[in-house]
Design goal:
Structural class: alpha+beta
Helix content: 25-40%
CATH architecture: Beta Barrel
Order of helices and strands: HEEEEEH
Radius of gyration: 18 Å
Number of strands: 5
């Protein structure tokens, strides 16, 4: 798996892997005719050495998990210190990653403007 710097900083790249099973998959936004902008909620369960847990992912039509059906399996990673916390690399998509980059750029511009205002006097 390829991890971004945020995942590596949080130590997610070292979290153990668990097999997750889709419990439900529900369309929440239909999107346009090409399917762009469509979103689904995937509820799943997973078992690890600490017990049985459930989770929920919101995936867009660009995610490889978008077409999951009930009973389908996929991998997640869980935090061994807090096993109810999980991460799923497959839930990420180019669209979501692009949104995160744009958000980070916007935040950087705001911080720069505030710092310039504070320190320029």
């Amino acid at each position: 798996m390829e991890y971004g710097w945020v995942e590596r900083m949080r130590g997610i790249d070292k979290w153990p892997v668990a097999d997750a099973v889709a419990i439900s998959a529900r369309q929440i936004i239909k999107g346009n005719r090409r399917g762009d902008g469509a979103w689904r909620t995937i509820c799943f369960g997973y078992r690890c050495e600490y017990g049985d847990f459930r989770g929920r992912l919101f995936v867009d039509s660009y995610s490889s998990l978008y077409e999951l059906a009930v009973g389908d399996r996929f991998e997640i990673q869980y935090n061994p210190r807090s096993p109810h916390r999980y991460f799923c690399q497959e839930a990420k998509s180019v669209f979501v990653s692009l949104g995160a980059v744009i958000g980070l750029m916007f935040l950087s511009i705001i911080l720069y403007a505030v710092a310039d205002e504070v320190f320029s006097h």
